[in-house]
Amino acid sequence: MFHINSSTGKLMTKQSLDREMMDSYELKIIATDSGKPSQSASLVLSIAVEDVNDNPPEFPQKSYTVAVKENEPPHVILSATAMDKDIGYNAIIHYTIIGETSSFYVGELSGNITTLQPLDYESSAQHTFILKAFNPGEPYLQDTANITVTVEDVNEEGPVFDKPSYHQILPDSSIAGTLVVDINARDENKSYDEGIFYSITDGNSEGLFNLSSTTGQLNLTRDLSKQTVPLYYSLTVTATDLGVPPLSTSVKVSVMIAPIGISFPVFSEAVYQPAPLSEKALPDTFVVQISVLYNVPVIYSIVSGDENGYFIIDPSTGIIRTRKNLTVEHFPVSFNVQATDSSNHSIHNQVSVTVEVIDENNFPPVFPFSLVEEKLEENSPATQIVQLKAQDNDAGRNGFLTYGILSGDRLKFRIDEATGILYSTASFDYEEEATEYQIVVYAEDDGIPEKKRGYCTVVVKIIDVNDWPPVFDPVNTFSVNENVPVGFIVGRVTATDRDMGDNAFVLYNLTGGGGNIFEIDEIHGDIKIKTSPDYETMNKYSLTVNAINNKSAPFYQATATVMVLVIDVNDNAPVFVQNSYSASINMINPVGAHVITVNATDKDQGQNGLVEYYILPDLNFSQFFLIEDRSEGKIITTGNLSRSGEIHLTVMAEDQGSPSLNGTAMITLNVLDNSPFVPQFNNTEISVSVMENTGVDHLIYTFAVAETLGKQIVYTIVSGNEAGHFGLDPKSGQLKTAINLNYEKVSQYVIFIEANENPSSATQVQRSGLFSQNVAMLKISVQDVNEEPAFSNSVYSVRILNSVPYKYPVITVQATDPDSGENGLLLYSLVHHETNQFDIDENTGQIFTVSVRRWAGTVSLQVQAADQGGRGLTAQTTVNVIVDASSSDNIVVIVLNQMINAVERNIAEVKRVLEEILAWNIYIIDFYSNEFERRARESTDVTYLKIIAVDEAAQEIPAEDVKRKLTEQKIIIQSELEKIFETSVTADVGEVPAASVSSELIATIVLSVLLGCTLVAFLVYVFITIERSKKQKWFVGKKTEIIEGFDNPAVADINESPKITEKPEHTNNVNTEITTFTSMEDTQGGDADKDVFEAEQKCDYLETLLLDLESEHEGNVGAQPVAEITTKQNGFLTDKNDEPARPLTPDPIIHTPDKELKGVRFSEVAVILDTETEQDEPDNEDLFFNNN
């Protein structure tokens, strides 16, 4: 968001800031100089992002729907509040309605939408308008929302009966269930009885009647009793509809019980009181029907009481109707109706009818305006706000009005119910309380049968008055750099006024000191530079800022003191006290010799006035001087100068300001020549060699200088003898050994020797350079001298069983030799050892068994270690081997479900596990995968181990005890072995196989058979050779050929000189096979009979081969050369120094082109015990037993 100019420090924005995303930033500013090492300072800069009106108000939704019941008095139906992401004045939201405004009002600041009058569903079922929210400032930003008001229908009229009243006469002989009357009512456009609920609400205390709630039929609940006089019942029946809310209407039902056989007409009611008539009833309006119980028709007539002639009666039906318009003032009227026997006018009866006329409340009160807006200043005492007058077109009590407050703050307002004057009851505070009040006032008449109301909404807006003084926000101390330009803003002071509008308008001005340097923006409060300040003139100002709101009375003023600190700017360069300096100095000086001290001053303060001194570099002399302390200007020497005479240096004084300023001065130095005599070596780099172990005081080298000029020369060791291995005579220069040198510890030394006239000057010259002519470097190479090896012990003891196999490891002895290279190469051997029971590995020193079967006792072996590969110095030690007799009865076989090659690799770990768990010494005397093919190493899943256990007293543990313990510890053994093999392991105890022929016996038999075969083959060969020589002498003189790949490739010609022969092309078709026997390498196992059989087969095969050679020769006489059979010396049966044997015959050998032929000397017969070669398998016994 920000970036800073690394040179000027000017901080700028990289993009526009959005206060709504982040309203403040905290930056760490680091200033770093260019020195080495660089120095830095840092400060934390807090940046507050000021708000601008860049966000419009936003409604949370674009449309609102609200449902309002019709006829409800004015009230708040919706609060649609918009949000503005800005703050302060920019976030003030005003509301207004666009469109229909006669029925609705919205609070200017609250956003509350209010109905101004009760809504009428029948007039309009839906109202739509637009609500706008806007900011009053600049720019003008707004948002709108669509408002839909749905008017819900309300049940306004109750059920209407088909008659205004019901009259019925029943004889006293009527029985239970007799229908008295069928009452019918209906609701609006529905049919009779549809959706109507009927009930008797009065007059049935005796329970004589039962009314069906759905049909309206009124029945008797019991039989009537005989009556002597008429009995009258007046019931009230109510019909209720299913509207919301449900409405009810009641009707009067009159029932008369008349005796049978009466002699005069009996009216259905004692007195008729029909429902009141409206003053607006038209002529011929039904009033009531008169009925009688009589056995003959009667004639009805009005006989008295209707002097104004308002009514007329039908003489036959008894229905009374109005004759003309009615005058309310003449009512109520009571008149008499007479029923006369139509056949005998002397029989008649009269009843009284009372009729009332009411003045209907036709009109509700109406205010001139549905909305009245009034203003009231804050802090005003209780006062009259407005007088409201409503008009009612009714007369009398229907037009008599009273006033009241339906809704609003009744603690703040009241109304005179008679005059309609609205008063405030308390003062208002614009800053602390609401600024707008809505009071719904009603005017109510005293109408009959119901009172009606009219409504008016009064909006009272509280007006702000200037009752708060400005208040300054906390003012921090400002700082400004000196020399800033005019108009630069130092800082801003802000005073706030809790009033609004002009009452909150504040102007700023400056008083007091600093008026000629600073000025203030009277509107925004920005303190600016009027004249650039100078730190050196004045660095601190105290400003008095006044804030005045003077647009409306009364005027208020506030004062704040602002401190402004002037920050020093590096505007003054350092100035030397003198423009030039001069001094004298010797050419030969010790390091750090004082030359001169310079001084400079800087008018600035702090870092800007902090001066450091530097010597400007040049090509000649600056390297001989330095500033001892950069802040003091003291110049010292780094050593001796290169020449005498006058030299010049330029010194610079630089301040620590940013950017830094500097000044320079010239220093003239007079260099005096005081150089001493410096001896010189002829050769400064010398190399010598010395043998190790020469002892102390052995002369290494004698140092001497080219010339002394008759002065005493002193020799000293400068470096390389920190360990004190050498001593140097300071006068003679002889370097001798101080210790006995050891090649193995240090093989080379590098020593620096210095020659000086005297010790004091030596130090001075030495500092002028390590490789100057008075310093010589001596490289001493220490030559290695062969030293004797040594065994760690002079005597070793070990114990084994005589049942262990061939090459069983007995013990490993090792010697150490301090030498390195060839001198430290040791070979081991057994000396003075005349038996063949043991042998030793010459490289590792491991002693192993050769054959100890059936032999017990103690043998002492003398082991020798010789360095230089066995040709140098020697050391000897004695190994006492105790061979204990063992019994085959104590051999135990362990069967593992692992492949033999896996067991071979981990045999040492298997032995360790068995010894740890069984707590005995364990000898593994053999292991194999098949008893009859022990040399086989295929991937068999079972491996057999033959072991013998021995206790600490070297006594064999009986096999049964071993087996028992193996069985007891089987689970533990298997668990430990699983850790080794990393798979599931089973370890079972097996049975020892029956004894087989020993390997020694097998070897003897096989060797004897093969020697016999060899002798026979030799005789056959001699015979064939003689025969060939007789028949092919002419061919022998021409050509002798030795086949490629012979072990003895050189054959002798007539002059005893070797000659390389070539294979003739005509021998390519000859198919001859030569069988080569290899030496016997292993006799440790296998089936003896099988081995003998295989040896005999090989002997027969050789004889057959030789006969084939002879037959082929006879069939190719004169065309094919005779094959030459040669023998090769083998160290198994002959001396190593024997020379290769001469060929017995010069006849060339015949061979196939696909096989290599190798010569065989019969004195070196190789015996093969097993034809299966194991080229990929290492020696099993070496791998198995090489575990110590």
Automatic annotation (TrEMBL):
Pfam families, alphabetized: Cadherin
Domain Cadherin, residue spans: 1-59, 60-161, 162-267, 283-367, 377-472, 472-576, 577-681, 682-791, 792-893
Keyword Signal tagged: no
Entry keyword annotation includes Glycoprotein: yes
Region span, Disordered: 1130-1155
Compartments, record wording: Membrane
Top-level taxon of the source organism: Eukaryota
CDD domains for the chain: Cadherin_repeat
Classification via InterPro entries: Cadherin-like_dom, Cadherin-like_sf, Cadherin_CS, Protocadherin/Cadherin-CA
Membrane topology: Single-pass membrane protein
Annotated keywords: Calcium, Glycoprotein, Membrane, Repeat, Transmembrane, Transmembrane helix
Transmembrane stretches, start-end: 1001-1024
PANTHER family on file: CADHERIN-3, CADHERIN-87A
Annotated protein name in UniProt: Cadherin EGF LAG seven-pass G-type receptor 1-like
Organism whose genome encodes this protein: Apteryx mantelli
